[in-house]
Amino acid sequence: MNYTELKVHATKAGVEAVYQLFLKYGIDQVAIDDPSDLVEIMNKEHEYSWDYVDDNLKDNGDREPTISAFFEDNEENQKLISELKVEIMMLKAAEQYNDFGRGIKFGRLYAETVPVKDGWQDAWKENFKPTQVTEKIVVKPTWEEYEPKTGQLVIQIDPGMAFGTGTHETTSLCMKMLEKYLKPEMKVMDVGCGSGILAISAALQGCKDILGIEIEPDAVRVAVENVELNEVDDVVTIKEGDLTKGLNYKADIVVANLMHNLIMELAPSARKHLVRGGIFISSGILIEKKDQVAKAIKEAKFEILEIPEDGEWCAIVARSRNKILGLF
Q: Which residues pair with residue 30 across a beta bridge?
């Protein structure tokens, strides 16, 4: 089976805008190539014991970010691709009126189609290597060997088509904040759990009751497999669901690595699912959007504790305000 890749060249904000457009069409499996991630890795070259780094990789840091979606090569999908190209052109035309904030640029938004053969789904594996994400946690793909050092916790991940390898800033920010605020025996809810990496991280750090929620059936399957692979299925439960709708669960920490608009939508219900003084950790937020998201979180009766940043992304850590203290 042959495929057609629809690749769009843009800024980080442009990539997010195109991703939202793809979601509107029901396209949720995409590939994002952000050269700034590679620059960060190269800047830490001497922190890792790599045997070899291809010089060609070091010269790739000035490329634009891209976002790609893949389609089976048939007449119906060719019509869909043409429609998407028109929508992307309209995004560019409406750039100055976008919802991302005044002065936010989407870049070229140049859309191109590239014929690809079957096997593209696994091409990314070549660049997924064992990575130390936090002080304690190393994430490694299932197909790589790694000998942990003293005190390290190793998460084995096969993300499949689900988001979450620990290498993206939004995921690593969540993992670092979890490590900072977690205490053994806490209950954790991971909303939009993707590959299950955050839920597994909480389990390895001593939490005994973790609930992961994911809307995509394929991601649910991947998360369940990863939970079992890391032998934490006795404390981690993965459920299919839309944010927290229909759930009866109270947690000490709610963590959500989602898009900024979903974080804003989630904030009020996140508070309802937290114990008094519980912690809400959210990421997937461009720095340009942090004030807007922080305002929504405050309006949901949270106190902002910190907003760590990494590259162009940030996380927001907030505490549910306590009724007993008369704070609202």
A: 69
Between CA 134 and CA 138, with CA 135 as vertex, the angle to 5 degrees is 55
DSSP letters spanning 38-52? HHHHHHTGGGS--S-
Residue 189 has pLDDT above 70, yes or no: yes
Mean pLDDT of the chain: 83
Sheet arrangement for strand 153-157: 131-132, 137-141, 153-157
Q: Does residue 290 sit in the same domain as residue 164?
A: yes
| Euclidean distance between CA atoms 122 and 111, whole angstroms | 23
Q: Does the pLDDT at position 46 exceed 50? A: no
Which residues, including other chains, have CB under 8 Å from residue 54's CB and lie 6 or more apart?
Answer: none
> Highest mean pLDDT range out of 14-23, 91-100, 139-148, 198-207?
198-207
Q: How far apart are CA 298 and CA 143, in angstroms?
A: 43
Within 13 A of 30's CA, how many CA atoms are on the CB side?
A: 22
Same domain, 216 and 119: no
Q: What are the pLDDT digits (tens) for 204-256?
A: 999 999 999 998 888 898 899 999 999 999 999 999 998 888 899 999 999 99
- Say whether both 95 and 164 belong to one domain: no
Count of residues making up the chain: 328
Final residue of a domain: which of 66, 95, 125?
125
Helix (H) or strand (E) holding 219: helix 217-229
